[in-house]
Design goal:
alpha+beta; globular; 1 helix; 105 residues
């Protein structure tokens, strides 16, 4: 019993340590990096390029190529790439729900 408890503790500690090791801090992916920040005008939903009222982002534009869809094929939002290369993801009503950092060259 004591050996199996020690074994479980060692497994848990190893799993925890490997999870921490996989979280390498990368400034390019960090939301505190201004390039990714919602405070950056290029990422703001108030910027016309990102606004849901812009026809290119409208769910009523059936020719739009920037839609984001769920597994059932329902449009749940849209994505817009900022000049910096960050891809911003918005809901259909214009709330920014995430981003994909610019790719490093």
């Amino acid at each position: 019993m004591k050996n199996s408890l020690i074994g479980l503790i060692l497994i848990a500690a190893t799993a925890h340590g490997s999870a921490i090791a996989q979280q390498s801090p990368n400034w390019n992916d960090n939301p505190n990096n201004f390039q990714n920040s919602l405070n950056n005008w290029d990422n703001s939903p108030n910027n016309w390029n990102n606004n849901p009222n812009n026809w290119n982002n409208s769910p009523n534009n059936f020719g739009a190529t920037n839609g984001v869809y769920d597994n059932r094929g329902n449009r749940i939002g849209y994505e817009v790439q900022a000049p910096s290369g960050v891809t911003n993801i918005y809901t259909n009503d214009g709330r920014r729900t995430g981003y994909v950092p610019a790719q490093q060259r």
